[in-house]
Design goal:
Layout: E1 19-27, H1 31-39, E2 44-48, E3 57-65, H2 71-122, H3 126-180
Length: 181
């Protein structure tokens, strides 16, 4: 008696999916921009990482299938977009940081004049005290106008550079979508 065995074909299944994971820190005001940008590179939003979330930033947990088409090209476009996102944040911070520093320095100079006014008054030089006090108060008022003027000028200066960075992001995400299709 011979035993006949048949080997049944194993059902064809998809290969096991392997994912890559990332946690991205995004400014709260730009969370949707970051989510949209990363989704165009194949990332899926998984939720928030509460441990890494701060007051100004939110931590986005992302997941992406490692088997996406043209993975290395998409990763390069993603890195370029991440650099553009960082540049946008830096340029937007510079709109207020530089004017603030200048305004603080002017205010400190005003303090020096007011301090000189106090010492002049204690030394018996009443007229010099009044003059130094008036100069000190003027130097205390000046930072307000300096800050506003510099902020407007700085905003006008960096606006085209910010727009160029946004365009870089849009171009990269568009190319990534075409490569993944």
């Amino acid at each position: 008696m011979t035993a006949m065995t048949s080997i049944a074909a194993a059902p064809q299944t998809e290969p096991a999916a392997t994912f890559e994971y990332a946690v991205v820190s995004a400014p709260r005001a730009k969370e949707s921009l970051y989510r949209d940008t990363y989704s165009n590179f194949g990332w899926t939003f998984e939720g928030y990482d509460q441990a890494a979330t701060g007051r100004a930033n939110v931590a986005l947990r992302l997941k992406r299938d490692r088997r996406i088409k043209n993975r290395t090209l998409i990763q390069e476009l993603q890195r370029t977009s991440e650099t553009a996102l960082d540049a946008i944040e830096s340029l937007e911070r510079s709109r207020t940081l530089i004017p603030s520093v200048v305004a603080y320095v002017i205010g400190i100079i005003g303090c020096v004049f007011l301090g000189g006014s106090v010492f002049a008054l204690q030394g018996g030089a009443g007229l010099l005290s009044v003059i130094l006090g008036a100069i000190g108060i003027a130097w205390w008022i000046a930072p307000l106008f300096t800050y506003i003027g510099m902020r407007v000028a700085r905003t006008n200066k960096v606006a085209p550079r910010i727009a160029a960075q946004y365009q870089t992001i849009y171009d990269n995400t568009d190319r990534a979508l075409r490569l993944a299709a």
